[in-house]
Amino acid sequence: MAASPHTLSSRLLTGWVGGCVWYLERRTIQESPHKFLHLVRNVNKQWITFQHFSFLRRMYVTQLNRSHNQQVKPKPEPVASTFLEKTSSGQAKAEIYEMRPLSPPSLSSSRKPNEKELIELELASEIEESIDVGKETKDEKQWKEMKLQVDDLPGILARLSKIKLTALVVSTTSAGFALAPGPFDFPCFLLTSIGTGLASCAANSINQFFEVPFDSNMNRTKNRPLVRGQISPLLAVSFATCCAVPGVAILTWGVNPLTGALGLFNIFLYTCCYTPLKRISIANTWVGAVVGAIPPVMGWTAATGSLDAGAFLLGGILYSWQFPHFNALSWGLREDYSRGGYCMMSVTHPGLCRRVALRHCLALLALSVAAPVLDITTWTFPVIALPINAYISYLGFRFYVDADRRSSRRLFFCSLGHLPLLLLLMLTCKQRRGGGDPGPPPS
């Protein structure tokens, strides 16, 4: 049986010397595991460090051998690229000497550039072109003063006056003039159309002048002339004044004072009431519908000189038509209107927006029936107008139920064709009043 260190030291040595030997033996036995672990850890760290350096050395040797292999192995000469055709020979040689790596001594110095060098040349040219393009785009993004060209002025003024909307206003005025009772006076009709068109151009120009800071936030209106700075605000206001003054003067003295007063009132209502109200209350939609209902009334008063029941009926048809038309349009532009800060039904009251559109689709059915009752058209009109009125009412119902972008687009595009077709049917079924002499009495 093995003896312990304590008994071994006590047998060999006694006294003070034996005690010292026993203490040293015990301390050595206790600390030996810790020293062994510390030694193992140091060895492991040194081994890891050695492995790391060995890995880096192998990577370096691999990359060096790869570069040597690429330089030594010659490749077939490619077809001359378009870059070399455009570059002069002296410039190409300078770029080759500048960018080519050191060739090994085994290759002759008079050999032609290989495929690698050509690829490097093409890459260098692409980098230079990208740098030039970046400089050009940076210069384009910098602010530059836009110069107004005389050739571009008619198109800019047409967009400033919303020429398509103005054409719609003139067409509804013409329909009101044609539906009025009495003989057709062409000079009066021409003056009415010109005066109404000028008044509409003035109102639209002033509207854009007031809404420049808000139109810049909307994708639908960010390319308008005043927003882009294509014309100055002074020029826009001057153009609006040059349209409003002769327009109202033509309607007042060329047609009759009542039509001129309606034209002036409509300019005021659109610019001073509807435009600021768009950022305050959803009532702007009803005010805008009144603005759109006045032009056919102006056509009627231009032909008759008075406000009759027929004038209010035409105004009511235009008034009701605008709600499905505009509510469906604004439904797809809710993000734009909210970004611009406009208070629209489609943004703040989406349920009311759909209900109002459906109500006025059904109102068009009732107004079509009222036309022969007021002796404006024959009874044929509500019958032949029933399919288009029923169809727009159906689309208004689908818009009310579905409340999605697809149903709103269908209703909007249907309204674009509904109004001219409805007015055309009214002209076709216009009530003919006898205006000739009664003739001789029977004998």
Automatic annotation (TrEMBL):
The keyword Cytoplasm does not apply. It catalyses: heme b + (2E,6E)-farnesyl diphosphate + H2O = Fe(II)-heme o + diphosphate. GO terms for cellular component: mitochondrial membrane. Its EC number is 2.5.1.-. It is found in: Mitochondrion membrane. GO terms for molecular function: protoheme IX farnesyltransferase activity. GO terms for biological process: cytochrome complex assembly; heme A biosynthetic process. Keywords: Heme biosynthesis, Membrane, Mitochondrion, Transferase, Transit peptide, Transmembrane, Transmembrane helix. The chain crosses the membrane at residues 258-277, 284-303, 379-399, 411-428. It comes from the Eukaryota. It is a multi-pass membrane protein. HAMAP family: CyoE_CtaB (MF_00154). Belongs to the ubiA prenyltransferase family. PANTHER family: PROTOHEME IX FARNESYLTRANSFERASE, MITOCHONDRIAL. NCBIfam families: cyoE_ctaB. Converts protoheme IX and farnesyl diphosphate to heme O. This is Protoheme IX farnesyltransferase, mitochondrial. It comes from Callithrix jacchus.
